[in-house]
Design brief:
There is one protein chain. The chain is of the alpha+beta class and 141 residues long. The protein has one domain (2-51, 84-132): Ubiquitin-like (UB roll) (Roll), CATH 3.10.20. Helices cover 31% and strands 21% of the residues. The protein is built from three helices and five strands; from the N terminus they run E-E-H-H-H-E-E-E. The chain has helices at 31-51, 63-72, 88-100; strands at residues 2-9, 17-23, 104-108, 111-113, 126-132. The protein has a five-stranded mixed beta sheet, with no helix packed on it. Strand 3 (104-108) and strand 4 form a beta hairpin. Helix 1 packs across helix 3. The termini are far apart.
């Protein structure tokens, strides 16, 4: 199933990621299943990248690489400095807890998904938006 994912932050005017195609393994029935699938797929990509680093002899970025990374919001060589493998169960637990704690919100086709376990209708080519909420910090006098 194909969807489009956008990542936004209330603190920034530009999106981190704007409407990138994303393929789900199966159609999720609840928000919890959708979050679990996204975390699982990203977990697998991260661990595969960590275990099979492609280190070129000379590391450089072409002009098109730089432009593409500028659109994503960060320019770098994609180097991993920590070869530690992630823990899938812990990653899913943290993502679910962050949603429950209100650290991010999700919208599917401009409708907010508020409950983790209520039935969810995700259609082919749906736009899923993750909005990271910024916590305000400061000193109490």
């Amino acid at each position: 199933m194909n969807i489009y994912i956008s990542l936004k932050s209330l603190a920034k005017r530009k999106n981190f990621i704007t409407k990138q195609p994303y393929e789900l393994q199966k159609k999720p029935n609840t928000l919890r299943e959708l979050i679990t699938q996204v975390v699982t797929q990203n977990f697998e990509q991260f661990n595969n990248k960590a275990s099979n680093p492609e280190t070129p002899l000379i590391n450089f970025l072409s002009h098109s690489d730089i432009e593409q990374q500028i659109q994503a919001g960060k320019v770098g060589f994609q180097t991993l400095y920590n070869d530690k493998q992630a823990n899938l169960a812990r990653a899913i637990e943290i993502a679910i807890q962050a949603f429950e704690d209100g650290l991010y919100r999700m919208f599917i086709n401009d409708e907010e998904a508020e409950q983790l376990d209520t039935p969810l209708e995700v259609t082919e080519d749906a736009e899923v938006v993750f909005i990271r909420l910024t916590m305000l910090t400061g000193l109490m006098w």
